[in-house]
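Holo prediction. Input below; ligand is 6-O-phosphono-alpha-D-glucopyranose.
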Amino acid sequence: VAIEKGNYRHFMQKEIFEQPTVVAQTLRSYLRPGEQRVALPQIDFDISAIDRITIVACGTSYYAGMVAKYWFEQFARVPVDIDFASEFRYRDPILTPGGLALFISQSGETADTLAALKHCKANGQVIASVVNVPTSSMARESDLLLPTHAGPEIGVASTKAFTCQLAVLAALAAHFAVKKGLMDREEEAEVVKHLLEAPASLNAALDHDDEIADMAHLIAPARDVLYLGRGADFPLALEGALKLKEISYIHAEGYASGEMKHGPIALIDDAVPVIVLAPSGPLFEKTVSNMQEVQARGGKVVLISDADGIAQAGEGCMAVIEMPKVHPLIAPLVYAVPVQLLAYHVAVAKGTDVDQPRNLAKSVTVE
Ligand code: G6P
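Structure of the complex:
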C-alpha cells in the first residue's frame, strides 16, 4: 500500500502530527487501563533476577535509550549502561551472565545495532528489542520483542518512532519496578494514569504549530544553536539539536544545562539562539539559573516550559513556547513535539529537502 502525505506538505510533518494517535496505539498494547496495570508480552525469563541492563542504539533511538536509563534507574533501581552501537563492541564491554541487553531501533536493521545484538547474544545476555518493524532482523533475533506501533516512518529524521519508543520504555521500566517489588499497585496505577495522559498532552503541544512556524524565522538565520535540558529532559536537548542538524543543516549542540559553564558558555553571544527545555518541577530552578547565565551574556533564549515555568522565568526571553503542564514521566514525550516542530519549520524556512536530507539515509545498513 502506498503511503500518502494526505494534507501535509511533508511526511515528517504528517508523522509529527500522528504522534497522539500512534502513541495511544502503542500504549494500548502495554497498558491495561481498566485494571490500571502495565501489561507486557509473555516473558519467559525472570525479570526480578536481572541486575543490569545494557542499552545499545544509534541516532534518535539512542536518545530514547538515554531517557530510559533515567527511568530504569529511578523506578527499578537497575543500573543501566548505554552505548552508541558503533562504539559498543570496541570497548570490549563487560557482560555478566543474567544481564539484559536492550536494543532500540526504528528499522530493526541498523548494522551497528544488529552487530551489537549478536555480540550480546553470543555473550549470554537476554536480548530484548524495541523496534518499529516487527519482521526486522533485530525482531527475529530477540528473546523479547517489544514493538512500537508507530506505523511506517518515511521521513528520514525520526519523529513518531521516538515518542512511541519512549512510551514502550516507560511501560517496561514500570514493569521492571513492579517485578522487583519496588512499585506497589497504587504507584503502578499512577504511572498508567500519567502515560494515558500522554496523547492528549501531545495534542496540546501540537496546538503550538503556527506559533513555532513564526518563531522559526528567528532561528533560521543562525549559524549555531544550543539546546539545554536537565535530567530526563537532557536527552531531549540532544535530540532537538540532532533534528535541527539533520534537516536544516544548522550546527546545533545539546548540552546538560549545568555543564554549560564548563565550555559552551564561551560560545554565547547574541547570534547564538539557546533553546531551553525546562518543565516546571524539581530541576526547574537550577535550569533557570543556567538560563540566566546565558542571558547575562547577551544570549537569546527560547524557553520551552509550562505556564508556571513561563510565569516564573519567561521575562527577558526572545520567545517562549508554552507546553501543557505534565507529570515529569511524560515530559520527554511531550517536549519532543516542540523540538521536532522547530527543526521542521526552520528547515522549511531554509528550503531544504525535509524528508530526504542530504547525506543521510533512513536506515544505515553498513557499519
Ligand atoms: C539513521 C536515521 C535516524 C535514526 C538512526 C537509527 O541515521 O536517519 O533517523 O535515528 O538511523 O535508526 P534506527 O532504525 O536503528 O532507529
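Residues 58-61, 105-107, 110, 113, 156-158, 360, 362-364 surround 6-O-phosphono-alpha-D-glucopyranose (CB under 6 Å). That is the main takeaway for now.
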